[in-house]
Amino acid sequence: MKRVIGIAVLCGIIGLLVAPTSAKEVAVKAGGALYFGDDVSYGGAVAVDVPTPFLEGRIFVSPFVDIYPFGGPSDSNVKIGAGGVSVLYKALAGEGVHVYGGVGGGMGQVRFQDESKSGGMFAVMGGLQYAATEKISVFAQGKFLAIMTDDIRVGTVVGNRATFEGPKKFTVQAGIAFNVGQ
Prior knowledge:
By secondary structure, the protein is mainly beta. The protein is 9% helix and 64% strand. The protein contains one helix and ten strands; from the N terminus they run H-E-E-E-E-E-E-E-E-E-E. It has one helix at residues 2-18; strands at 26-36, 40-51, 59-70, 78-94, 97-112, 115-131, 136-148, 156-158, 161-163, 168-180. The strands form two sheets. It has an eight-stranded antiparallel barrel with strand order 1-2-3-4-5-6-7-10. Strands 8-9 form a two-stranded antiparallel ribbon.
């Protein structure tokens, strides 16, 4: 899990370095999340949306970390974490409302009982963000999260050995975005 968070932090630093210094609105997002696996797991999500100069500032680089440490009744020992960077396209949909979509990649990790597997991660997301004030917004997004691991089957115990299948599931995230910058 430390490796996943480290990679996400590194991607965030790279994203901040390539962003223009006159970036108008960097949004720091934090919220709760639901992961729809065999059971619903819950956790948290953090992302930083950094504008780029492409397409008049509508393209954003967004480093993120998603952590689902709490499972439902049959997944109670499953912990899932993912970290990486997304590229988002944001469009104005009305007064203070932005809709967005994007794709991302990075690393993910699944833990079940005493076993742990890491692998590449791919994400596709879409959502909306509403500006409640000039500096605070609320957001809601859906994300398809696929962690590429081998010989893993989440939630199944065969004999005394846990086997896993790389999680490829849908998540829903909602929370608050703090707009920082100019």
